[in-house]
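Researcher: Can you fold this with manganese (II) ion in place?
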Amino acid sequence: MNDLLVFSPEVEAARANGAPIVALESTIITHGMPYPQNLEVARRVEATVREAGAIPATIAVIGGRIHIGLDDATLETLASTPGDQVMKLSRADLAACCALGRTGATTVAATMICANLAGIHVFATGGIGGVHRGAELSFDISADLQELSRTPVTVVAAGAKAILDLPKTLEVLETLGVPVIAFGQDQLPAFWSRESGLAAPLRMDDPAQIAASAQMRAKLGLIGGQLVVNPIPEADEIPRATMIPVVEQALAEAASQGIAAKSVTPFLLQRIFELTQGRSLDANIALVLNNARVAARIAAAMA
Ligand code: PSU
Ligand code: MN
């Protein structure tokens, strides 16, 4: 294990001091945003975690080793490599990537696994994967949901991405026993929008409550993590009514072009970026930064 995990000096020091650490994923960099904005966002998210009093640990597999904390040159290489040339790693492909000495970006599921190996309990991202629309035919349900049910990491997201079937995503999370905790509001947020029209199963307004709830799960012997859904700041949101037709159009194009499996989410995010003239990306950036701040507060409450 020791030669499989590579810690950045900053993360190594934080581990030694028991300082709060926030894990960050890399698929959002390689498959979720265009270059060079992805690189700028990756740096800004790390800076935001530091300003909020925690240490950022961006996770990726580089040449078969799991890096916990990336240096700037590695971040730059990952961000500038076209997405189709970097593996998109979930639970199913993580071991193969390591065994073959390859390089890959970690999704929410794989980042949770790596964070847990590294003893990191809190992780910030944009939006988790979930149940895709039409899943009753395609069976496309993100491995992120199952991971939340088995790996003890608190994931802070702005909801599941609104390209998904949100009611079905909530149902699956309930079946899997994953607590879905809305931070500071009653509704489940919908990624680019604060509202989804769906009530969140749980609500907490204080990061210390979220930390206590994670610790209670461990005490009760409940395996798995928690999903904290943190609404995008009001000033940055794109209202739900604006997003609905945009998402519908992107979904229709994906269906007519036969986009499937791992390509679905990156395709939809890219099309929605084009259809909104970049506004969806601005919102995505704002919500990720907001999640990084809340995750840092939760990590501090746990430390
Ligand atoms: N959050 C974002 N953009 C992204 C993702 C999250 O703001 O691109 C990534 C995460 O890595 C998540 C993945 O795990 O999208 C979901 O992919 P899929 O639907 O194929 O499971
Ligand atoms: Mn999928």
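Model: Folded with manganese (II) ion in place. The radius of gyration is 18 Å.
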